[in-house]
Amino acid sequence: MGGDPDMTRAASINLAELLRQKGLEAEALAIYSDYATANPDDVLGRLNYAIALMDSGDVETAQEMFSDLLDRDDLSFRQWSQVGIGLYRAQSFELAAQAFERARVLNPFNKETLENLANTYYPVDPAEVLATSIDAGADRSTLTDDVAISPNTAVCSACHNSDLAAEHMMQNGGDFAASKDDSGAMISAGVETCGLCHGPGRTSDVKVKHGVGEFEFN
What we know:
By secondary structure, the protein is mainly alpha-helical. It has helices at 5-21, 25-38, 43-56, 59-69, 77-89, 93-106, 111-121, 151-156, 163-171, 195-198, 206-209; strands spanning 132-135, 147-149, 179-180, 186-187. The chain folds into two domains: 5-121, Tetratricopeptide repeat domain (Serine Threonine Protein Phosphatase 5, Tetratricopeptide repeat, Alpha Horseshoe); 126-209, no CATH class.
């Protein structure tokens, strides 16, 4: 695909996103891959490809691409933030800290960046996460055959129950089919990263968006 580089990138990304919305994940990833291969120095193209890989469940390849971006010195504040979030979702907390630190250098007093950086030093221990059982399994006396939903996802999906909402939750670490160990702790391949955008004071603070401060409690 020739022409202006910005137009070429936009056309590739837009086409890939349209395919993803139609459920054609493999075709979308092929477009991202072709563009990234043809334009290896295009940071935005590689970043979008890594995010798409992460959303598709290919955490290992996405992590490698995010890690490769750490070797560059030409990313913007927003791009470093996206790399950090991607690595955090991949549970590569040490590398995520490096990315958030790069973002902090470019915007030293950004509240979200400082909080994200702090979160990488104190990641949630999976053994302390309790999930909501939706199926007690064949043996009600044991927890190990339960089917569960990860905690934030259990709360949000009570109202936000569209396919699009569910996809958003799963893309950010939510799990509708988690299991439990014999102590009741959740076993899941993902880590919910909802707080990075929906936590207190964040860009989509759930308390602000839902007007929690205006609730009347009876």
